[in-house]
Amino acid sequence: MVENRNGLVVETFLTEANGRAERDAALLMAEAVPQGKRVTLGGDKNYDTREFVRELRGMNITPHVAQNTTNWRRSIDERTTRHVGYEVSQRKRKRVEQSFGWMKIVGMLQ
Fold it and tell me: 0.85 exceeded by the pTM?
């Protein structure tokens, strides 16, 4: 999990690859977010599922995940996409990839 304002990695979670692991780990990390203030959670189109979006909304977290345009059953709709904050989140979500790039090149992660 990366904080979008500064691109800092704030939490990681190791899972077995099974097709759902990334979403399950994201939900576990989202549960640890302090309650009270409304937050957003960005992600790629792999996170655009009914179950994932419903779980986030149930935790009072606004899902700013990319719309899966190849699947006609999008879970992210205009309630979310019409806001300027959604567009900003989509531009900044690449920061998690930049962190992995740094770890591989500078940090010598293999």
Answer: no
